[in-house]
Amino acid sequence: MSNALTQKILITFGFLFAYRVLAYVPVPGVDTAVIASFFDGTGVGGMANLFSGGAIQRFSIISLGIMPYITASIVMELLAATFPNIGQMKKERDGMQKYMQIIRYATIFITLVQAFGVSVGLQNMKGAVLMDPTTFTIITTVSMLTGTMLLMWIGERITQSGIGNGISLIIFAGIVSRIPAAIGNTMTSVNTGALSFITVLAILAIVLATIFVIIYVELGERRVPISYSRKTIMQNQDKRVMNYIPIKVNLSGVIPPIFASAVLMFPITLLGHTDNSIAKAIADALAPGGLGFNIATFLLVIFFAFFYASIAFNAKDIADNLKRQGGFIPGVRPGEHTKEFINEVASRLTGAGALYLAIISTIPFVLINSMGAAFYFGGVSVLIIVQVALDTMRKIEAQIYMNKYETLGAVGL
């Protein structure tokens, strides 16, 4: 392993360690025991606690997690797909910096709204707040804003200087950190008789089956064959030429479930503790475990799967590059016809991938929750863990190969 790769891995672990330390820094003026009793279990508290890595149970300064940043990114992606000027901004170097700056400002606004909503909601929770309401609201809002900004900075630094996508790794670390607690809760439930050993085996079987399905689908791809003219083959005898176009079954990756969770958690966090009957009814309808939550998750995951795949996969660029390199798909004319063919293949795969993501995001949770599990478990959490692990391993392998080629090039010189 090269020094550069080792340094990237150490930087990543260092920032993730800092993230876990922040999860234990509480907001002043609260009774954490009262909050911990609410944000535990399998409902909305369990879901929020899972994605925050247990920070919300301790009412840490990073209780809102990275979700405000993700929500801001969703809004900007939607605007970029709707307005050509914003979409063009992403393609330019200077424009991309401005685009990211807008996301940061939007993150600040969303965090302020959510933090204010949480502070007001906690004041309605008996015994949770230990200071003057106005002072508590100000301190809570500023503390949570600071925590979210730190998380956003950590995520961006990991992406720039470490290994993997920083935002995904933060969510990954938060979910993984809850595994020991989930095992402990399950063991306690078995010892007290709340869960039978057969039920635990059934839950374990569902978890393992979910992991197997995720790995199987995530590694699946459609390989569209490519042929080259004789002239192109002769000119590239000393180079490795790709003889197929790999199109993944799940083109959108882990983004749709994360986006769907962010969209659903926003109204739940904002409306969950208000006195308004309509707001409470909406929050209850969207509470994890309910029919409304599962239907909303299913539909949102499918929507974001198609939406993000249309952004991440550009058939026109692939067709243009293929034509420029003298390659073609057998039986398909180069240019526009190739683009249409690739789009058709990608659309079919996206349909299958979206359905797979929607099922994984809902069915395991419904099954395990019906068994009376003592912890929150959803296919979304497993999907994030497996996807981020696979993506990080691919990037580590790519870095290793790149270092080998650089070494060989230096030797050749």
Write the layout of secondary structure elements.
Layout: H1 3-22, H2 32-38, H3 44-51, H4 67-82, H5 84-91, H6 93-123, H7 133-161, H8 166-177, H9 179-192, H10 197-218, E1 221-225, E2 227-228, H11 230-235, E3 244-248, H12 255-271, H13 277-285, H14 291-312, H15 315-324, E4 327-328, H16 336-370, H17 379-412
Antiparallel strand pairs: 1-3, 2-4
Helix pairs in contact: 1-7, 1-8, 4-5, 4-6, 4-12, 5-6, 6-7, 6-12, 7-8, 8-17, 10-16, 10-17, 12-13, 12-14, 14-16, 15-16, 16-17
Low-confidence parts, pLDDT < 50 over ≥5 residues?
Answer: none
Number of strands: 4
Estimate the mean pLDDT confidence.
79
SSE order, as H and E? HHHHHHHHHHEEHEHHHHEHH
Structural shape: globular
- Spatially, the strands of the biggest sheet line up as 1-3
Helix content: over 70%
Please tell me how large the radius of gyration is: 24 Å
The separation of the N and C termini measures 22 Å
Specify the number of helices. 17
Residues in β-strands, percent: under 5%
Structural class call reads mainly alpha
Q: Quick one: biggest sheet?
A: 2 strands, antiparallel
